[in-house]
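User: two proteins, same treatment. go.

Assistant:
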Amino acid sequence: MKYDLNNLTLEEKIELLTGADNWRTSSSNGKLRQVFMSDGPNGLRMQNADGSTKKATAMPNLSVVAQTWDEELAYLDGETIANDCIDNGADVLLAPGVNVKRTPLNGRNFEYLSEDPYLAGVMARAYIRGVQSKGVGTSLKHYCANNREVYRFTQTSEVDERALHEIYLKPFEIATQAEPWTVMCSYNPVNGVYASENRKLLKDTLRDKFGYKGLIVSDWGAVHEPYKSLRATLDLCMPHNGDYAQNVKTALENGYISMKDIDFCVQNVLNLIETVENAEKTVNYTKEERHANALKIAEGGMVLLKNEDEILPLKDGKKYLVAGYLAKNPLLGGGGSAFVQTDYPVSPLCDLLKDAMPDSDFEFSSVPVQAWEMPNELDLQRAKYNYLIAREKDAVILYVGDPNESECYDRSSIRLHPGYERLIKEVARYNENVIVLLNVGSAVDMSEWIDDVKAVLLVGYAGEAINEAAAAILSGKTNPSGKLAETFPLCLEDTYTGDEVGDGFVEWYSDGVFVGYRHYDRYGIDVLFPFGYGLSYSKFKYDNLKIEKKGDAEYEVSYDITNVSDTDGAEVSQIYVKDIFSMVVRPEKELRAFNKSVIKAGETKRITVKLGYDAFAYYSTVYDAWHVENGPFEIWVGASSADIRLKGTVEVELPDDGQQSQI
């Protein structure tokens, strides 16, 4: 149905610009269909009328999805969640979040994608396309520079223009190519002005520069002065704001806003309603198939971080101890609006391993009950007993994690609870073959215990199929192929921000464009595990790099990857670009493309990727646009940001009239 805004009275128009309640748009006196919105991004989170939470498929958290480096799996993730949305009547899923991981302390990093803006944007774009392919809308969030939970309502993110565009806006610029039905503004001010009132961000950048045509919605309660948000082209204030109508009417009477301003936003709400009405909602997965999809993504997103002496996959006919409360009750996701309530029974890891490897012996121990609690004397006595059991086993699989990752607050440390660190070291005293499973949503400092263990598998917050995926990788049924989407530093002090959080009013982003691996590269800081890192049961060899010029600043990069092992596997290869000489300071290298390909044992596969203008550009504050300087650039192809296998050089030669004079 096509709606004409001229059929609405002024009161009905204004009513349409704030929610009818917590989750629905207004009907404007029953004239319009209401749009129902619901939380994501790791599955549907919707409340029943009695306040309880509906059951849905608990998908791997976006941090795990990003670690797949696989756009097809990101698309599948969105598609699967959309099925649950349709079953429960949700029109718009409030996801995905693409805020850059500037600090590992951010309590919400588990539901964000990466420290790298390109990877975050590309994976979000695929996720959005997956959701919307089923006739369900998305809400790209939180726009923008919302990189902490502490002080998120008040503290302004003071970011220079270049860093804003290259790091914090870039994921949104890429993801809007998928045409999300809505974009959600963040709570925080940016450069002194609340995101909800920031016309430069909303109108000048998102709408005009990025070409976004959809609806801009506030985060829940992010609107402070309704008419100022409306003037900035924020279309929909959520949830219902009882003061909204009077505030806007008064502003209209005083000439602070015009009817043109109101009609612009009303039209965007009407456009969303029409989009929802015209959408063909299609359910294509059964409940069982949705779980299978969750398992597939979890398997692809778990990262093998250490595998000394090739202790993994587990060997048949051996005796193993599976230890830790989380092996039976894993953390499926982080807390807050992203937490998903599932009714799928999570199988204990020990039982799954018994089924996968019937010729081996697996014994379970739950001691300590929860290592983040202070153990009592009985727990300590049980622990000592189990240490003796551990000594008799061929290896110990120790399941540890961090339950303190959530919306609304940040982590105070990136180390595991001291109880877990003590447990790992103590078990390693009794058995030299310890395999640690990390049930966390963000980077962890492992310096206290990493040298004491043989293997580390980052299972992450991998949703309801977490134990099935872990068992498949441990047993060798699945070859791990995930790679880190964020750097794991040696310690918090090595990060740029350390334990600083701002003063509650202002945080100065003095790191500029040097975020994540760009920071460690610039200052030559060693890390525990670099961005893009992940082990496989296969071994891969890179060679035969060829770079062909296809346009003024367009190149085709191709290279061979050979699986030199006896095991089929998937390899994520990463293409970085380095500006050898620049008139502005630039990172050592920047991710500009990637590829994930399955390569059979002994097979050689030719990989081809394209690099365009964006791959060589920086954001010029002089031209207020993306700019490429003429000169030499290096193209690096690697297995991680620190494992560069191939290098080549190109000479970019754009027309001279668009170039500044150089030294």
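Protein 2:
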Amino acid sequence: MINTKKKKSKLSKRYFWFVFPVAVLFCEFVLKIKIFGLSFDESFLLTLLFSLSAGIFMTAVFTLFKTKVANVISIVSLSLLFVIYGSHLVYNEIFKKFYTLFSLQGAGEAIKGFTGSMWKGIGVSIPYILLLLVPLAAYILFRKRLLKPRKTKPKMTLTLLGSSLGLFLVAVIIANFATSGTPSVKDLYFHSFTIEPSMRNFGVLTSVRLDFQHMILPYSESLDESDIVDIPDLPVVPPIVENVPDDEPVVEEPVTEEIFVPVDNVMSIDFESLINNETDSELSAMNKYFSSLTPTKTNEYTGIFEGKNLVFMTCEALCKYAVRPDTTPTLYKMMTEGFYFTNFYNPSWPVSTSDGEYVACTGLIPKSGVWSFYRSGENKNLMPFCMGNALNSLGYRTLAYHNNDYTYYNRDISHPNMGYIYKGEGNGLNVTPRWPQSDLEMIQLSFGEYMYNEPFHAYYMTVSGHMEYTWIDNSMSSKHKEEVIDLPYSMPVQAYLACNMELDQACEFLLQKLNELSIAEDTVIVLSPDHIPYGLTYEEYSELAGKEVSPDLGPEYFESVCIIYCQGMEPIVVDKITCSMDIIPTLCNLFGIEYDSRLLMGYDMLSTASSLVIFDNYSWLSDAGYYNAKTRKFTPNEGIEVDNSYVSTMNKVVSNKFKYSAKILERDYYGYLQKQLLIWPNLIK
């Protein structure tokens, strides 16, 4: 009996060593299975190694303390693990994204607008939240067995530290040699931190560590000039030509109309001189990259809106299925009677609304881990292609409005930098306090500030379409409840359609005022969403779409709507694959604004340029097919055959667009060009 007790006592001392490795692994795989599913691949191995390393390291540190202190620290640490994993779980349930540490600076503002969504997210996630509580609960229940009074020998602490370091080094070595895919695991770990792929490949704790590391010492991706490539041409299928008998000569009709000769949409940028004289290796690489790209060309639509007024709206959570002849007749009229984009996509980005605005207003890809729009304003970056600056320099009156708190996402810093006189709730736009606020009221309060001063450009960030989609938590949904209550949908879908009716009425009022002033045919109206309606579950969104859609099923989940409309124009159907990143180059071309198409990440939607839609996890959609970066699988479009070289080249194209778009933000590249070449003289920094 004595020997048995000794063995039991000896064993109980070591129970504690397993607490944190098991706790971290358990939490990691609860979240991994919930969000990504379980697959025994490279990401599984790396998550396993990094998690074990972190858990063993925590154990080693806690062995340095006496029993009572170790007990308190253990409870606090396990509680912190629960908060970290639980908050990411709930955030992902609400926004279909993971948050970064940088985003926490706006958490206080966000809670005010998302209280209902937060509780709903918690409610839906209850089973997984309870699972995440298991390590903490188990420790509290069994801590007396786990923490026998003892004094750990320094040798054991060093052994634990050595084991943690060994596992960590093995994981780092594996990551260093994992160079396939886009982004590759190597780039993701050492250079280009992106939250969603990082969570999938390394797990939560390692991603939080990398996020903190890059927040303190901002990462700067290395630019490899050997990877500079342009979009490859698709294989051309020779046209079928019917044989013509020799005795039947072909008669060519004489051409009497003037032939349109397209020219490159470029500016007078002497890249060769910049490359030869630049001593900064990073700027030199950027000069080489942009000079190597194929520009888009002018087309039959170039300058057709030159001199016209512009009203540009980024519409909160609008989607193609909300634009209907019954509930939103004005939006439907503008969509089908203007430029009708039938294959338009609106990818989501890490900072949802703010990044969505950034893409639509700049034609650039946001940098992961920061608020790109805020950073551009904070650093006073030159933004020559934003419509505010571009049209302001041509003598337009340019104003911007938002019917929520004017400081939300630091728009009071980003939007004036785009060239706007900016007003929101709290600095001049006195909308009725409610949630969400009325888009109709915003237009009613603001139209008089610009419509009587042509040419004008007004930009709006709307809010009426904001979640939560219920009759109680959404004032716009409840306002229009009776108009949708008989539609054959569940309550959240009905509420979503209802709140978007307020945007429709805002546009109806806008057109009414433009017609009263006889300037409707001289005013272009542009609308696009900031992101998909993530306030609807995948099941609810599928119900609205009339088909099953989700990110795991393909890019169709991100199909959306873009409206470019001018009263009196002939409807033009555009079947080309397009996306929100293409809006700015398209508007520059339509308004005859001088721009360099090589300096933007999107393409003129009316040009002959190849199509490319880029998603935040490095997936992409082209004329050839869809590449899923998560599965590393390419699915070609029907009738298209490409070899592996096409996919690998496109992966480099997409990777470069992420890198060089981030560099434009980091290095204020447009400002650099202005100083070097004295271009954009009307935009003084």
